[in-house]
Amino acid sequence: MPKELTLPRARTKLPEILAASVKTIFDSIGYSIMLDLKVTIDDHSGFCFGVVYAIEMAEDILDEHGYLYCLGDIVHNDEEVKRLESKGLRIIDYQQLAQLYNEKVLIRAHGEPPSTYELALRNHIELIDASCPVVLKLQNRIRNSYDKQENIFIYGKPGHAEVVGLLGQTHNEAYVFQGMEDLDLSQLPDKITLYSQTTKSTDKFYEIAGKLAAAGVEVDANDTICRQVSNRDKELRLFARKFDKVIFVSGSKSSNGKVLFNVCKETNPQTYFVSKVDDIRADWYKGGEAVGV
Ligand code: SF4
Fold it and tell me: Which residues fall within 8 angstroms of residue 292, CB to CB, at 6 or more apart?
């Protein structure tokens, strides 16, 4: 048997899939018994509160109603999406939304631009709004900046669902960029208001703000990175350095997952990204190693 097994802290209505996934991972690495691996699960692991809230909202309606439309993947985790689809969740895109009338549609944690709410109104769609409060607050701040005619720059990924929602607050006039390489310093206004997508790296955000200031741009830098992401940095670094190997479990499409995986990998180069049990490989381990999950 593994020498040590620390189970995650119990949480209110933690999606069963998460607990099941973690257990399956342990079952799957049956060779941990042969190799005498010491396996520890990070007790802070799990979905952020914004995603848990959206999943709980969807499940309540699915239990009552039998089906529910959701605009885009409810969470960037294929296993969890499959589980909810088996309960009646129907993932749709914008084209499908435009063809829908008189139905309930869930808005996921990433939030939506105003145009989605306008379309819902026209099509008599009842929106179940599970936009994360952190994202809604950011949307409001950007809208206020837009109303004040500030030059808005958003550090984020163009086309990402949250960014589409943020950009929508400015009638798509804000400038979205992924790094200094996307900015032409000679074309920048003297003064800009800088925001960030909630799941970007805090270090990179401040690095960009510093470089812009050094280039003579007056920057009103608004660190709008979600604390569920940025506060995890320090804890994850402490966690990752305690183990010979780290398995980082996340959906392959999750921006948050990518940022946090990189944090682990920087601290412990022996970190492996897995999104499903089959991704785990026996040859990653040597006998007697300590493995953090
Ligand atoms: S803003 Fe934070 S809490 Fe909300 S969905 Fe994004 S990562 Fe989760």
Answer: 39, 40, 41, 42, 239, 240, 242, 243, 245, 246, 247
Per-10-residue mean pLDDT, the chain, length 293 = 34 40 55 72 86 94 96 89 95 97 97 97 97 97 98 96 97 97 94 95 93 96 89 88 93 82 94 86 85 90
Which atom of ligand 1 is closest in space to residue 49's alpha carbon?
Answer: 3
CATH number of 49-131: 3.40.50.11270
Contact 247 CB / ligand 1 (< 6 Å): no
User: Three-class SS of residue 12?
Assistant: coil
CATH architecture, range 134-221: 3-Layer(aba) Sandwich (3.40)
Q: How far is CA 215 from the centre of its chain?
A: 32
Do the domains 134-221 and 49-131 match in fold? no
Predicted TM-score of the model (pTM): 0.81
229 CB less than 6 Å from ligand 1?
A: yes
**Architecture field, domain 16-47+231-292:** 3-Layer(aba) Sandwich (3.40)
Active site residue 173: no
